[in-house]
From TrEMBL:
Pfam families: Flagellin_C, Flagellin_N. Keywords: Bacterial flagellum, Cell projection, Cilium, Flagellum, Secreted. Flagellin is the subunit protein which polymerizes to form the filaments of bacterial flagella. The keyword Zinc does not apply. It comes from Actibacterium naphthalenivorans. Residues 4-138 form the Flagellin N-terminal domain. Belongs to the bacterial flagellin family. It comes from the Bacteria. Residues 409-493 form the Flagellin C-terminal domain. InterPro entries: Flagellin, Flagellin_C, Flagellin_N. GO terms for molecular function: structural molecule activity. PANTHER family: FLAGELLIN (PTHR42792:SF2). This is Flagellin. It is found in: Secreted; Bacterial flagellum. The lineage of its organism: Bacteria, Pseudomonadati, Pseudomonadota, Alphaproteobacteria, Rhodobacterales.
Length: 494
């Protein structure tokens, strides 16, 4: 049935043409924008995912800038610490040269002072955008990543850069918990008299048939039968004289009736002694197997920990010398710091040494070779301000024999500190560089992923555009034909 009121064919053709035009519009939008999902109405789920990933890409770009800034800051600190290490090595050369007595130590000290001032200049200038990693102790966090979990939550990751203080600051004692129990002092005073041991000979009216063998500090004296005549007193006198004739440094002997008294003023060395009569220990008695070193000892705990700000103080002759530990330091660092402090005090005839005892505890030894006793005391407390990593550099003075000797130990410690700082900065600089490279590659991967979801396939869109244009032309013709159908009814009335 034909109708002039309802043109079904035209309606069908019109709907088809509308669909073709809609598809054509969408294809043209894809070609114009380059995206198959340009807005949420195109595909809400894919659009939402792409927007989250795009925000992550922008975040990673900012992280890359942060890493570049951090890498530059660490590079400056590394270069500074390496320069400081080189300058300290030059100072060591000057200190070694000063060990000779026939050199102009005053001129050497002038060179050392100039190098020290240069180190101070380098440390002060080692900043990038105001951040100086070779001053202070507070760590610096560099944003390194944004980690998104399955539930959508985001957590920031950081690379922590530890500062390495290469200043010469003394630090200051705190007023916190008393830590004196962590350091034990062997005596309240350091004397200059040395320590003694005795060799006692039993009563014997005639020793001419006896043999004696006495060992002192590795040197052995042998008396065959007939070498000594008389009684035990004569034997003691002969043994004493023979020991003195050896010329052992710091060791002397004296005889009193049947007793040989051995005295050692060696500062940091025990002197072993042994003795036999007629091949055995009968009729000869030693008060000790060795004469202990003259120096008094500050012994640090083997079990306690050292925290940043823990201050240890040693008083020598009424003057207090202080070292305050920095982050990550140990009792070895504390002992060496106190040594540098005491050496820097330039106390006449007082020398120091750092060593480990048989129990593995770190010790600071103080020897007094002056004409009178020197009072000793110690104290410790937490909550202080840490000393600089080059603490003790200002106290280096090679104008005297004692100062030149002390400077050797101090400069070795300072070089180790500077090398440790350089190595630490180099390690973290490498890590930051690796992370920055990874962030760049990750950003590229995210962009690729976003593109695969929302970018249009231009080849397919182009082919589809041409097909739709043909369909549009055909749809227009079909609609035109359908609209002519009612006119054909007029021929029926002719």
């Amino acid at each position: 049935m034909s109708s002039i009121l309802t043109n079904t064919s035209a309606m069908v053709a019109l709907q088809t043409l509308k669909g073709i035009n809609a598809s054509l519009t969408k294809t043209q939008d894809e070609i114009a924008t380059g995206k198959s999902v340009a807005s949420a109405k195109d595909n809400a789920a894919v659009w939402a995912i792409s927007k989250v990933m795009e925000s992550d890409v922008k975040g990673f770009k900012a992280i890359s800038d942060s890493l570049s800034l951090g890498e530059s800051s660490v590079a400056v600190a590394r270069q500074a610490s390496e320069t400081v290490s080189d300058l300290l090595t030059e100072i060591k050369g000057k200190v070694v040269a000063a060990q000779e007595s026939n050199v102009d130590r005053a001129k050497i000290q002038t060179d050392i002072n100039a190098l020290r001032d240069q180190i101070t200049s380098v440390v002060g200038a080692a900043q990038f955008n105001g951040l100086n990693l070779v001053q202070g102790t507070e760590a610096v966090d560099i944003l390194s990543s944004l980690d998104r979990a399955n539930d959508g939550t985001v957590a920031a990751s950081n690379i922590s850069v530890e500062r390495h203080d290469l200043t010469t600051s003394t630090g200051s004692m705190g007023s916190g918990t008393d830590l004196s129990a962590n350091a034990t002092l062997s005596a309240a005073a350091a004397t200059n008299t040395g320590n003694s041991a005795t060799i006692t000979l039993a009563a014997d009216a005639d020793v001419s048939g006896d043999t004696f063998e006495i060992t002192v500090g590795g040197a052995t004296l042998s008396f065959a039968a007939g070498d000594i005549t008389g009684d035990q007193d004569a034997a003691a006198s002969a043994i004493s004289g023979a020991i003195n004739a050896l010329g052992l440094v710091g060791v002397s002997a004296s005889a009193s009736t049947n007793v040989v008294t051995l005295t050692s003023t060696r500062a940091f060395e025990d002197v072993a002694i042994a003795g036999t009569k007629n091949g055995g220990a009968t009729d000869i008695t030693l008060s000790a197997a060795e004469i202990s070193e003259r120096a008094e000892t500050l012994t640090f705990s083997a079990s306690a920990n050292v925290k940043e700000g823990d201050g240890y103080q040693m008083s020598v002759g009424g003057t207090a010398y202080t070292y305050v530990a920095g982050k990550g330091e140990t009792f070895e660092d504390v002992a060496r710091g106190l040594k540098a402090a005491v050496d820097g005090g330039k106390i006449a005839d007082v020398t120091t040494q750092v060593a480990q005892n048989d129990s593995g505890q770190w010790t600071l030894k103080v020897d007094n070779n002056s004409g009178s006793s020197v009072a000793l005391a110690r104290s410790a407390a937490e909550g202080g301000t840490a000393s600089g990593g080059l603490f003790g550099l200002g106290g280096i003075d090679v104008t005297t024999d004692a100062g030149a000797d002390a400077a050797l130990g101090t400069i070795e410690t300072l070089i180790d500190n500077a090398i440790d700082a350089s190595a630490a900065f180099g390690s973290v600089e490498g890590r930051i560089g690796t992370q920055n490279d990874f962030i760049g590659k990750l950003t590229d991967a995210l962009k690729t992923g976003i593109g695969s979801m929302v970018d249009a396939d231009m080849e397919a869109a182009s082919a589809r555009l041409q097909a739709l244009q043909v369909q549009q032309q055909l749809g227009t013709q079909a609609l035109s034909i359908a609209n002519q159908a009612p006119q054909n009814i007029l021929s029926l009335f002719r």
